[in-house]
Design brief:
Blueprint (H helix, E strand, L loop, with lengths): L12 E5 L1 H9 L4 H8 E5 L1 E4 L5 E2 L1 H7 L15 E3 L2 E3 L1 E6 L2 E7 L1 H12 L4 H12 L2 H9 L26 H8 L2 H11 L9 H10 L23 H8 L15
Antiparallel strand pairs: 1-2, 3-4, 3-7, 5-6, 7-8
Helix pairs in contact: 1-2, 5-6, 5-7, 7-8, 7-10
């Protein structure tokens, strides 16, 4: 088994510091250096590609990977196909333990996209929160105006469509996740749906979380966005049914 990274030639380990415990030590009177030393542990950080058996640190692989499919060390093709689906298999050993024959192509594709589009990180996080049904995280992200977060000013997070995921919008993601709560939030913030159509609970929740609809003049109604198959969120809801029975045709998900 290799014990060094083929890119940087350093040991396949990572020093991890428990910041929460370190802060607690500092509050109790210990020095920051002493707290850090006491709470630092070494964990594995190894990615073994199954195609060529080259080993990398995760960050080294991410930094060197391009979507050409070749190993950054030996140039051998690292992708394979399973039932017509492209994948990149590896043994990943990190703080969470060993995962064998793990397909990391989705992660590599995501990171490669973000290297080319660093200002889209907030958009990617937004879509993930929509898929998780996490209303509080969505609102926290939208309210974050940190000028150092790398976002491109003209990227509309609410209306972002996923080029890596069938061009789905946040509303599509909410439909797929079966999250009415996220759907109501997105309709409130990024559509022209008549406010009389909203249940009182939606306004109460929005007020408690400090959000409300802004002027939509000149903005695209999120209900009009279509995925790569040309489907609106309403058409998708009609297909998946579930919690969406009664919504298609009501005007909530369509213009």
């Amino acid at each position: 088994m290799a014990d060094t990274c083929t890119k940087c030639h350093l040991p396949l380990i990572l020093d991890v510091t428990d910041r929460d415990e370190e802060d607690e030590d500092v509050e109790m009177g210990e020095s920051s250096a002493a707290g850090s030393a006491a709470k630092t542990q070494t964990v594995p950080d190894s990615v073994k590609l199954m195609s060529c058996f080259c080993h990398f640190h995760w960050d080294c692989l991410i930094d060197a990977y391009s979507d050409g499919g070749g190993c950054p060390n030996c140039s051998q093709n690292i992708s394979s196909e399973n039932s017509g689906v492209r994948q990149v298999l590896c043994d990943l050993n990190n703080e969470g333990g060993l995962q064998e024959n793990l397909d990391i192509l989705p992660l590599l594709t995501e990171e490669n996209y973000l290297k080319a589009n660093p200002g889209h990180r907030k958009c990617r996080a937004f879509l993930e929160f929509c898929r998780e049904g996490n209303v509080e995280a969505i609102i926290g992200l939208l309210q974050d105006e940190d000028p150092d977060d790398g976002d491109v000013p003209d990227v509309d997070v609410l209306r972002y469509q996923d080029p890596l995921g069938d061009m789905q919008s946040g509303l599509h993601a909410a439909v797929m996740a079966g999250s009415r709560e996220v759907a109501w939030l997105l309709l409130l913030l990024a559509s022209e749906l008549n406010l009389l159509e909203f249940p009182p609970e939606v306004f109460q929740e929005a007020e408690a979380l400090g959000v409300m609809r802004e002027d939509q003049t000149g903005k695209v109604d999120i209900r009009s966005l279509r995925d790569a198959q040309g489907k609106s969120a309403e058409e998708l809801a009609a297909e998946v049914r579930g919690v969406w029975i009664g919504w298609p045709g009501s005007g909530r998900l369509s213009l």
